[in-house]
Amino acid sequence: MSYLQNKSVLITGASGGFGALLVTACLQRGANVTAVDLDLEQLKQALPEGDHCLLMTADVTDPVAMQSATEQAVSVFGGLDILVNNAGIMPLAFFQDHKVAASAWNRCIDVNIKGVLNGIIAVYDTMMQQGQGHVVNLSSIYGNAAVPGSAVYGASKAAVNLLSDALRLESKGKIKVTTVRPTGVPGTGLGQGVLNPEAISGILGSDYPGYLETMMAVMNGTADEHLTSSDSIGYAALEPERLVEQILYAIDQPWGVVISDITVRASNDRYVI
Ligand code: NAD
Questions:
Q1: Is a pLDDT exceeding 90 seen at residue 219?
Q2: Ligand 1 center to residue 11 CA distance, Å?
Q3: Is 271 a catalytic residue?
Q4: Which residue of 83, 100, 108, 196 has the smallest Cβ count within 10 Å?
């Protein structure tokens, strides 16, 4: 039995990474899913459009587009039970890189903070009128503390944490709120937005050289099995599927139960925050 059966779920950033995996997992559990991303062709390539899966383009930075996406979800599926604010970008760079990074940092603030806010605004009235709803916001361990190289991305995720907590308090038990703070998960598209690869060193501290060696081996397929098997205590690089399993667990709960905050790590990933 799945509590997701017949629920209406809207997921942003749905054509890649965690988003696409989560859409597929929700469909498998009997949910009706509205999958939102920037490009329709990419959505179509990633996901099976059909009676239970609506594909919609919307830029999360555009409040009108987000409103329209949620209205479509309500109209097609008769309501909106769960919103997953998953879309995000990660332009890691140091302050000294500001000449090349400033515009990407502004976009990061728009997507990661205003995008989450636009999602909340788009569903708030509907969920309050329904008397129930669930908002899941993708934060990051980068939102836990400052490390060199992640000022703007980290600040955007710390803002997501506060938006989540404020929504939980203000909606007085009518909207469940879950903050997801994943560790670094290499197998998605997020790393493509990194502006200065050296900026990754901040979250690893003195383990940076060892991390690079491990990641190269994982990506080349030459790593020892104990580093790549989630059944091993040496598991070093969390696979996207492992993270999505935990989001799925958090949203596939009865209405009266909320998993409000989850951090998922690989047991041996060594991040310092
Ligand atoms: P990803 O790049 O694979 O997927 C992100 C998706 O968001 C893409 O499909 C992209 O097209 C979409 N997107 C970007 N900007 C958008 C916009 N303005 N409007 C609509 N869609 C937009 O990345 P991912 O790793 O799957 O990341 C998903 C979320 O998880 C992000 O919020 C990210 O910050 C967070 N996160 C990821 C990691 C990780 O290591 N992968 C760790 C912690 C948190």
A1: no
A2: 11
A3: no
A4: 100
